[in-house]
Amino acid sequence: MRRLRSIIPLSALCAFCFLMAQDYDREKYANDYVRFLVVQLGQWSKEFPQQFYMAMMKPPIDATKLSEGAKAGAGELGDGLQKLAAMDRTPGLLTHAEFRAQLAKTIGVTKELNQTVSAQRFPAVLFNDWDQIRSTLNNLARVYKLEPLAVLEAPGGGGRGGRGGGGRGPAAGATATAATGPVPGGLAGYVVDAQCAKRGKGMWSNAECVARCVRDGDKVVLVTEDGKVYQIANQDKITPETYGQVVTLLGKTEGETITVESLKM
Predict the structure, then answer these.
(1) For the whole model, what pTM was predicted?
(2) φ and ψ at 216, to 5 degrees?
(3) What are phi and psi of 228, to 5 degrees?
(4) Cis (ω within 30 of 0) for the bond into 184?
(5) Do the Cβ atoms of 207 and 174 come closer than 8 Å?
(6) Residue 181 in contact with residue 192, Cβ under 8 Å?
(7) C-alpha distances in angstroms, 113 versus 59, 97, 192?
(8) What pLDDT was estimated at residue 225?
(9) Contact assessment for residue 120 and residue 154, using Cβ atoms and an 8 Å cutoff
(10) Which tops the pLDDT comparison, 257 or 120?
(11) Are 117 and 126 contacting, i.e. CB atoms less than 8 angstroms apart?
(12) For a Cys staple, 148 with which of 28, 134, 141, 208, CB 3.0–4.6 Å?
């Protein structure tokens, strides 16, 4: 009986340690994801302010119609992202009040810039860069439960697809595409591993985390913008290039499972 009493506390301790390890891993993954997004923002925004101000001085842009907030927004964006990058190695990043406040400020100063880039005919390359910056800022906003920037199309609906029509990280125009959910002849959503699908939008476009979880044995699923998860019957149809991307899967759907025939990005 005495031996049994000693085993029970030991079992409880092991279970507690296991749960603590899981919580630590989740927090570590989430912190790594935030740092990954900050690095992406730095890459996409490196040349953006200069490109914006150069484009502003040439036709067809009408600089007289740009607000002072929009004109200042590109420079303030760069300053804000530098401050975020300076804090992204801080322990406890998910609960770091100063980081969250700086993120909120950075998103706030780009609201007029967002309206301007979508209202005038800026070069396609610049608009595509902005589309990636906005998408990544919105992913961070979801992690910290902040109001995201509005997703607006370029004049005439053009200018998507990233540099040269490719795109890096979250797919160009991902938020707008995923918002439609099921589309005629297919299902639109993020290609995510089953675990990350449960962790909210902030994790759906984390391609590195998806790849890591798949390597560890998890299966990929399709999760729509409203959070509905579809199992994918034929996993071999999904390639690593689609992880964290918004795609449209075409095929046969039965309940919450789809057998993929083809895929569009």
Answers:
(1) 0.54
(2) -80, 0
(3) -75, 130
(4) no
(5) no
(6) no
(7) 18, 25, 31
(8) 82
(9) no
(10) 257
(11) yes
(12) 141
What are the two backbone dihedrals, phi and then psi, of residue 52, each rounded to the nearest 5 degrees? Answer: -65, -50
Residue 210 identity: V
CA angle 150, 152, 157 (to 5 degrees): 170
Alpha helices in the chain (DSSP H): 2-45, 48-56, 68-87, 97-109, 111-119, 124-143, 174-178, 194-197, 201-204, 207-215
Q: What percentage of residues in the chain have a pLDDT greater than 70?
A: 78
Q: Is the pLDDT of residue 16 over 80?
A: no
Contact status, residue 120 vs residue 155, Cβ threshold 8 Å:
yes
Return d(Cα 201, Cα 139) in angstroms, integer. 7
Give the DSSP letter of residue 181.
-
In 3D, which of 135, 134, 146 has the Cα closest to residue 97? 146
Q: Which of 86, 202, 194, 83 is nearest to 135 (CA)?
A: 202
**N- to C-terminal Cα distance for the chain?**
63
